[in-house]
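Morning - flavin-adenine dinucleotide inputs below, output right after.
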Amino acid sequence: MNTAAAAIRQTDTQATTENGRDKSPAKALFCGQIVRSALWPFPGIEPAQKEMLDMIVDSVDRFFADTQDDFARWDEAGEQPEEFVEALRELGLFGLIIPEEYDGIGLSNAGYSRILQQASRYDSSASLTIGAHSSIGMKGLLLFGTDEQKKRYLPRLASGELVAAYCLTEPGSGSDAASIQTKAVKGDDGSWTLNGEKTWITNGSIADFFTVFARTDSEGGKISAFLVEREFPGVTTGQKEDKMGIRASSTTSVNFSDVKVPAENLLGEEGKGFKIGMAILNNGRTGLGGAAVGGMKTCIALAAKQALERKQFGRSISEFGMIKQKISDMTVDCFAAESAVWMVAHYIDSGYADYSTEAAISKVFASEAMTRCASEALQIAAGSGYMKELPYERIFRDSRILTIFEGTSEILRLFIALSGIKDAGQILRELGPAVEDIFNHPIKGFGLLSDYAGRRFTNVTSIGQDRIVGAVCEELRDEALIFEKYTLEMARMTDVLLRRHGKSIVDKQFALQRAANVAIDLFVGLCVLSRVSSMTPDDSRQYRQALAIAKLFSHKAKRRMNRNLRAMLRNEDELAKSLADYIYEAEGYPWDTLDAG
Ligand SMILES: Cc1cc2nc3c(=O)[nH]c(=O)nc-3n(C[C@H](O)[C@H](O)[C@H](O)COP(=O)(O)OP(=O)(O)OC[C@H]3O[C@@H](n4cnc5c(N)ncnc54)[C@H](O)[C@@H]3O)c2cc1C
């Protein structure tokens, strides 16, 4: 047996016995480990589930294709008509993830993500109406509800008689979700009185069922989650927001004025609301990821057609290298995002204990890839793309929200880096307990990290045991070596970060951003290698081009990772910080060529 094969056998045993589904493959990268069993083989789909999905995809195609012109009008008008929401109900699209016992369709996370992808190919607002309901609006009830609560609400949520919304954000509390001010005060009879204002709530005007987070200042925690009906006296919604994109999707404030919430509508345990809120977002990220992939597929189809049809300088613009580069980049981005989102959905469906870091990676990558894709598609269409007559500008506007809601890219990068470093920190056993508190909620716990400077961990990790070079197909062995090498580099980088910054690491955002970027490239790249390696090799162009995608992603990722790693040691961070401070002070850009000299 060769060394690689022996290492793989060893790793397989180790993964099932030690790692199993308890080990987060993305966090493991920070310790220099590739959890091969979590990444290989690339997850497939049961034939029965595929048949069901094909049917739903087909009905989405038939209905949405007929509605194409309406989507542009509704974007202009800034709302979807009630008949459209009714049609979504009739298609069963509000019951996608609700189990059959509660009259839903009972799709897996992966199946649901695939359906949102399909809806997003036509219109982001339409997909969001369905997504905000399922991914976040009533997901808390599914994950944390009691049997009684589920019986009471799920059948009506499945039929769309009740549309759901998720109410976390407030005027003074966005990314810092733990700082919400909406208050829930417990009465003697166990019921709650809710007061406060939630802002920018998707489905606000059409929802009848709200998952609301409020400060309860109870023992064991400060925030609790509640199931609130529009019918409860004191619930009102504000005017529809006039937005840049996803204009037809309803976004409003939701106000609670002395709203009496019965004791039986507390969701999960009292005081566990923050954890519930984050768990909902983690579980729902594959919905947004799927939607981003759907948007990218539309951009690629539109851009390819446009490139082939448009002639300049006596030639089709599709022949120009710079246009080919864009089409190629968009395709690699889409394939990579699709692979990562599908992998994460599989983790959720197969009962992984911790998939929060992977879910954050898939959200950051897919949302940013969609933003790039929408911009490049518009660039290929150029002047025509800028005109409202064609869909590019709407897609471009719609895509902009993806890196903002359900966790901004900045906050998720912090989360990815700090979660991974926490895992690495835990390898230093004696420091584990001290590090634990701060990292339970990395975002919440800024500034509290205990002193663990001066420690090294790379020599106690099992670097080198998780070889993937024998697991990939022959054509991708060089690329597998890239990811093995850079996983090792990731561990070294984590080590340097821990030693250099100790407890102040949480404030080192330039460094954390780089660490997150390397982790994103590693995890997404491994998903791509796994997917292509799991394809049946043949002489088809589709297979050869999938290999090309894997190579393109890997080599570009290598250059990006190299840049990020090098910048850990040598960078201009202090110059950048001081420049930003100067601009804050000057309240803008102070130079003018008129003053030169
Ligand atoms: C169209 C739309 C629909 C929405 N739907 C919902 C919904 O259904 N339910 C709901 O509860 N909310 C919803 N939101 C709110 C959304 O989730 C928030 O906008 C988002 O969480 C960011 O909060 P913020 O806009 O207040 O930005 P802020 O938190 O004020 O952030 C401003 C900027 O600072 C950055 N930043 C903040 N903190 C840090 C930090 N520690 N380090 C580095 N950078 C940082 C952010 O990344 C961002 O770039 C929606 C928003 C929009 C626009």
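Note: The CA atoms of residues 20 and 37 lie 8 Å apart.

O.
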